[in-house]
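Hi F.,

I've been meaning to write this up properly since the lab meeting, where we talked about keeping a consistent format for the predictions we share between groups. The idea is simple: the sequence comes first, exactly as it goes in, then the structure tokens exactly as they come out, then a line or two of notes. No screenshots and no reformatting. I'm using this chain as the first example so we have something concrete to point to.
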Amino acid sequence: MYSEGPECPFRSTTAVMLRMRKILPVICLSLGLAAPARAVVFDISLNLVGMTSSQEAVFEAAASTWESLITDYMTAGVTPGTQLIIDAELAPIDGVGGILGSAGPTLGNAFGGSFLYATAGGMQFDTADVAALETAGTFAAVILHEMAHVIGIGTLWSSAAAGLPGFQELYVSGSGQYTGATGLAAYQQEFVGQGSATFVPVELGGGGGTANGHWNEVDNGAGATGIVRVSDGRDVRDMLMTGWLNAPTFISDTTLGSFEDLGYNTTLSLGGAIPEPSTAIPLALLGVLAAMRLRRGRPVPGDSPDEPGTDPVSAG
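Output, unedited:
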């Protein structure tokens, strides 16, 4: 989750923004001169701290999942061997039930092209909450969700909001309307009755850290939206990148379309099925300029919530 307070270690401080504003443009100019012969494969490199081998395996699996769905970069000038380097650690934050974790990009590069890519990011999770997530079977989902925020979902929808205008502008903060062309096209095809939609609804509830960085739900994740997938009837609230955790989740075509709007080639085939991992996937985000949080969904009559009888808490 992301918080407005100092406990959010990857929140965009002045130092980070200076790095983004002053170093990035220089790198973009210098690296944009020579284009590689072939598209550069999307590759995540993890630096993991304070974890057991089984916990490390969860992070590795999440990275492998995104590497299998995001194939390569659209920008021709991306340097061969480029990696998204993610520093991830388990560390004390604020005790049980508060901040579960934080994540987001910390450095980016346009490589002389029209997209601003994340090239480094951080993920941190509270050791006081990890055991409960593992017991509930949602730890893997939370990691996958947060990693998507590092890559750019919700955090790099607007390069101007990240302090580097001139690249992708897919969302205006406070509008609740995502207008990236491929994400919108995927949404129109993926969900019943959305063929004439002019935008993908974005969450405006939940406060700082949840609003403006996730696909929209209703009633703080407590109820169904009534918008369901054509393929299997699953509700929007179960999408991986909504702001409330309603397990099990799914990686939507809409999310893959958003990655394409961010400048990545993916396995998305509009009008066709998208391969999805077998693991459930729910999560949240830390933006470059705004913290994001994933919340646990409220119990709904007839549902089987992860933690019956509890209100949603920050989760990611």
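Notes:
The two ends are 3 Å apart (CA to CA).
Residues 1-37, 272-293, 298-316 have pLDDT under 50 and may be disordered.

If this format works for you, I'll send the rest the same way.

G.
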